[in-house]
User: Fold this.
Amino acid sequence: MLDGGFSTLGSRPAATAASARPALPLDPTKEEPLAKSQDRYRQTEEGSALLANSAAVEPGRALALADFAPPSLGAGDRLIRFAYSLGLPVSAIHPFRKRAKTQLTATVTNPLPGDAAAGKALRAGHFLVHGFKSPIADTAFSGPRLPPAFERMVHGFRWLRDLESGGQRSQCTQVAERITSTWLDANPKPNPTPAWDIGNVGHRLLNWLVHAPLVLSGQDRSVRNRVLHAVDETARWLDRHVGKAEDQLAEIAGWSALVAAGLILADGKARRLFGEAGLVRALGELVSDDGGVLSRSPLCQIEAIELLVSLRACYESVRAEPLPQIGTMLNLLVPPLLALLHGDGGLGNWQGAGAVDADRIETLIKITGVRARPLRDARQWGYQRATAGKAVLQFDAGPPPVARHARDGCASTLAFEFSHGHDRIFVNCGGAAFAGGLIPLRLEQGLRGTGAHSTLTIDEFNSTAVLINGRLGSGVSEVEVDRRTLSAESSGPNSSGSGATRIEASHNGYVGRYGLVHRRILILRDDGSELRGEDLLVPAGRKGKRGTIGVVLRFHLGPHIELAASSDGKGMTLALSDGSLWQFRSGRDAITIEESLWADGQGRPIGTRQLVISAKVPRSGESFSWLLKKMR
Assistant:
């Protein structure tokens, strides 16, 4: 039997105070009187909580970004930069200087390891993308669209990093030259295809420069000259079109490639000055105040970090001091990424991502040189993190990304993930960004829907409309968040003496269709042994609507969890791989088990299950309380 509970009562913004309702305390065997539960715990004032507990809630970080203005230059360099920005060629800026032959002036040491398995697959004649092998000979290097993951791999030449890790350079050079020549044959000049999306062009040029030894070290001089010509022409094309990027991250890729070309190609000073000014401006618009990219995607967060790390290596190759804004941005990008890591060190499944492996994340963070703690309260990026003992709670308490920033946008508002140690208990399906590999492309939109996340849906409608091409439509536009600590008050010998973290959030995604606000309250005990939740549907107006609606709460389970149902149908025992037993309990409705899937770090769909609570409730509103507790 549970020893007490946590009261959800407390101050909150005036807009939501009138409709607040207390969470119902639950016992794995029976319900405990609400008054008794409320008497056992009190909520401290915010100031005293911060003084009493050094690990109390961090306020939202109002980070003052470094001055993201063009680098300070002398009059001569400013004139060169201005002239180049107008489109004047180097020959016009320096009319008395002989035009240098296209050549690379330095060799870059690649800082980012690739996937050795994918590199060996390339040597065997296959692209390996998210676990799916596709013969290189059958790949369409131009023409119709490929699945997004293949487009980024093929047209962005991201496979060069994998190939470099797949064997000795002598074993890989011919493969790199053969694939590059095939791509150039299929794309002899710029064309309106995905191959010439700014993001793909930026990655392609940057990868050509960073991995030049692979594509320029062969015995065939004609191939070498052809690739050098392609590098020069691509940089010239990007000079004129980088401002037309499809999104902010694609623009960062374009500017990074231009700066790298200015550093490494002969006679590149004007391009470097031009590129640095554009890059600094774009970096200032890349992230929210707390360092999360505007797409809210951890995969995009990783991509931004990788771009800046590769560009920093280009500076080091010519013994030049990197822009200070690169270090500033890396310091901003790392803490939000760490916030989405579970106890196993892997990534949570958010905004289309899968559970990217701990080794990859750890290696990337080590390469950045940034030492930081996870950002717990990312109000702008929208993710809340709470840790207690071995438990990690991740909560999506922000609106989905706006259409112009979304890549694999998901209707995941108020979804959560929960892990204990190395076991993920409640997860989201994830994997939409990996669709086209082992995850079928036809599942992509479904994996982005609200039902693929551990949250509540009404009549199986998404809280935000899920459109094609990774975009989102209307739906959630406002999210209110209230985070605070709860302090346990000693009340007899049975008191656990443990406090808790309480996070409450609400969204308006169902107001337009149903006139209801979805509010979720999560309370995590400080020892990590108990997670309480309550989902409320609160009328947005003064008068509730008539009729009934179908409500479904989904709790997608991590892999390798064994289940056993209770006799009354309202409880479920969960056996984890570490041998521990947990009990999940519904406060009012029976629990059913349905099939689900979970995307791992390699983009593989792992079959799993989900706990489902379904009910028909009045349109005037209702509440659903539930409890997850570790059994002793």
Residues 373 and 588 are 39 Å apart (CA to CA).
